[in-house]
Write a structure and sequence with these properties.
single chain; 573 residues; alpha/beta; 8-stranded mixed β-sheet; 18 strands; RNA-DNA_Helicase; hydrolase; ATP-binding
Length: 573
């Protein structure tokens, strides 16, 4: 402990700090697997100078000693959308004595939990914003970021493993792949991921078996475009890539008087997306056409007859670009779901100029995924911050990532959003771990209301240690939106409420209003659903509204919420 005191006071030179701190870590190697003696000696043994380099990330499989104690049997289930690969993996999970499913979306995690519980296999649900524990459960269904790499399982499933190549979330899939401690690991995804998975698992000494799948139902690319919108028919899904274009197409289809549309896009609350998908799938529903973004690419079971691309270009947050081959195949593959009333899927475009790219993409294999995402754990960043004598997260992140050493099979995940949040929380008197948690939160930094919500939560937590929801949000101010701008603002409010729930699971008693936030979040979803139903029926000259409780129809004014944020912000300065 005397060593730690010297380090805190800065009484040692930088070289002495480095060597003494390493000896301190070796003395307390039971604190965490990353700082155990074996790993530290490995790092020291790989540097001729005898110095440790905590920016050396060339052997990330060593971060997970529990998994390395097993010789795992890894089964790669690879094939196109609608090929049964995940279904077969889940059958094995269902038959196991204990297990975990790791999916890319909350919707998928919930769907699997419900499937297992319905099959009399008790299964917990764990996502960033949800915890549902079932008595006696030895199975869990989780979003991939929530994967537990310390628990032992008989069977584990990682879905959509091609997302190891995702520039923002790939690191979470890599962590699950390398770190899950299970006798059997079933990994499902696109065949393009096979070479990188094989290379990554060479270092783990796991036994790898590959099973290839073919699509279960035909997918037919049409030679002609949709033509006039009068050719829209029940079961069609028009795909576009902006919320304004989604509502423009919805209005155009509904004004013709033949169809009503469900809508699905990323910023809709997950509950609303599920409700919209359910109504579209229901044969008794009048909502028989879907207008959607690429959010339909995974996570929702949809009975789609024909996918119609309104465009093959999208804005990806940086620039407007053509869709990639995997994106086109993932979306198009949603047509003709096996076992649905549409056994043959069709796909076409609105614009004839897009047909050549559509046809060539569907014939082409997805480009091979060359590298997997990686990101330093908090433990590495914590050690590095102590060696550098600072608890400011933004410069530590920048410095670490600038010096990080990786093998050719990995890339550092994009952390632009994390750095933006780090710049905010570095202004506050918070511990490094607390800052890291806020940086990991699901805040949308491109949304002003969401960012302001995070800032107020962090400031109140730093000042008081307890964050009450009513300090920045007034329950009883929500009503059904009447314009697209109000709808967008209500979606932003939903994000703030989700953020509070997420933080409440990380900071325990410091965010005590989880139930209130969850109830207000549900109200947001219901109001958005009512807006969607009202807009459709009003365009048909009819009035058929959801029968929601009176309390849901109270006044909603997002400008009031913004003003409340500003008022609190002004008082804090």
């Amino acid at each position: 402990m005397a060593v730690a005191a010297l380090l805190r006071r800065g009484a040692l030179s930088s070289s002495s700090r480095h060597d003494v701190y390493i000896r301190c870590l070796l003395s307390y190697s039971d604190l965490h697997p990353l700082v155990n003696s074996a790993n530290l000696r490995f790092w020291r043994g790989n540097h001729s100078s005898g110095k440790f380099d905590f920016t050396d990330m060339t052997h990330p499989h060593l971060w997970y000693p529990n998994a390395r104690e097993k010789k795992r049997n890894v089964f790669l289930h690879v094939g196109p959308t609608n090929s049964g690969k995940t279904h077969n993996a889940l059958k094995r999970l269902e038959a196991s004595s204990s297990g975990v499913y790791c999916g890319p979306l909350r919707l998928l995690a919930r769907e699997v939990a419900e499937r297992l519980n319905k099959a009399s296999v008790p299964c917990n649900l764990t996502t960033g914003q949800e915890r549902e524990e079932i008595e006696g459960a030895k199975h869990s269904s989780v979003t991939v970021e929530m994967a537990d790499v310390t628990t032992e399982y008989q069977c584990a499933v990682i879905d959509e493993i091609q997302m190891v190549g995702c520039r923002t979330r790939g690191c979470s899939f890599t962590r699950a792949l390398l770190g899950i401690c299970s006798d059997e690991l079933h990994v499902c995804g696109d065949p393009a991921v096979v070479p990188i998975i094989q290379r990554l698992l060479e270092a783990t000494d796991d036994v790898v078996t590959i099973q290839y799948y073919e699509r279960l139902s035909p997918l037919v690319p049409l030679k002609s475009t949709l033509g006039p919108f009068s050719n829209i028919k029940a079961g069609d899904c028009i795909v576009t890539f902006s919320r304004r274009e989604i509502y423009k197409l919805k209005k155009k289809i509904e004004m013709a008087g033949k169809h009503l549309c469900s809508v699905v896009y990323g910023s809709l609350p997950p509950e609303t997306r599920t409700k919209q998908a359910t109504m579209f799938n229901d044969e008794a529903s009048d909502l028989n056409v879907l207008v959607a973004s690429d959010a339909i690419g995974m996570g929702l079971n949809l009975n789609i007859s024909r996918i119609i691309f309104s465009t093959l270009k999208k804005f990806d947050g940086i620039s407007t670009r053509e869709l990639t081959v995997p994106e086109i195949k993932q979306i198009a593959g949603r047509a003709g779901r096996y076992g649905s009333k549409f056994p043959v899927g069709e796909v076409t475009c609105l614009d004839a100029e897009d047909l050549p790219l559509l046809h060539s993409s569907l014939k082409s294999p997805s480009p091979i995924i060359e590298r997997a995402g990686l990101f330093p754990t908090f433990d590495l960043l914590s050690v590095y911050s102590r060696l550098n004598g600072t608890d400011f997260l933004h410069p530590i992140l920048e410095r670490f990532l600038d010096k990080a050493k990786l093998s050719p099979d990995y890339f550092i995940a994009d952390c632009e959003d994390m750095l933006k949040v780090a710049a905010i929380v570095d202004e506050l008197p918070l511990a490094l771990h607390d800052k890291y948690v806020f940086c990991q939160s699901p805040v949308d930094v491109r949304d002003d209301i969401s960012t302001q919500g995070l800032t107020q939560f962090a400031e109140n937590y730093a000042k008081k240690g307890t964050v009450r929801l009513k300090e920045i949000f007034t329950p009883g101010t929500l009503r059904v939106p009447t314009t697209h701008n109000q709808l967008q603002e209500l979606e932003s409010v939903h994000k703030v409420l989700e953020l509070y729930v997420w933080l409440s699971y990380r900071f325990d008693d410091s965010f005590p209003d989880r139930e209130l936030a969850a109830s207000q979040k549900s109200i947001c979803s219901m109001l958005i659903e009512e807006y969607l139903e009202r807009s459709g029926w009003q365009q048909q000259g009819q009035r058929r509204f959801l029968h929601t409780p009176r309390k849901l129809r109270q006044e909603y004014d997002a400008s009031q919420l913004r003003g409340y944020f500003r008022e609190i912000d002004a008082r804090s300065k």
